[in-house]
Amino acid sequence: MRFALAEAKQAAAEGETPIGAALVIDNTVVASAHNMRETWQDPTAHAECILLRQAAVKLGRWRLPDATIYVTMEPCLMCAGALVLARIGRLVYGCRDERAGALGSVYDVVRDGKLNHVYRITPGVLESESRHLLQCFFEELRTSRTANRGMEKPGPKIHNPN
Questions:
Q1: Which is catalytic among the residues 7, 16, 48, 74?
Q2: CATH code for 1-136?
Q3: Could you give the CA distance from residue 20 to residue 6 in angstroms, rounded to a whole number?
Q4: Is 48 known to be catalytic?
Q5: pTM of the model
Q6: Would the N or C end of the chain have less CB density within 10 A of its end CB?
Q7: 88, 69 in Cβ contact below 8 A?
């Protein structure tokens, strides 16, 4: 989980939402990643999805039944679904996501019963550290936006020939 937290801190330093993830097989970190949505301008560039891509390339396989994924925040529906599709063995996460969490907070992918794979879940590992990173990031973001209010550059002018 410490690798995931380090990735989350790197995300914050890059102006990304501080969510980090690490994939471990046989006590070895195979891959680690953090959110890159803003940098890549890609709504699917969540830490978990990037992590799965990295691991698949490195291992030469997409099925990961022997993998444990560590992530600092409860995965969203997209990521929880991707973890099902990757056939992971276990997921460990830090804090719950009361707005978009798909492992019990808002929806529960694993307990749906209609899917062909389920994985073990261990919630609340290094929860306070994970939550603190997110709280500090969003507090700083709000403060920055408030301080810069009224200083925004005007948007692009759209030429209307009519």
A1: 48
A2: 3.40.140.10
A3: 7
A4: yes
A5: 0.86
A6: C
A7: yes
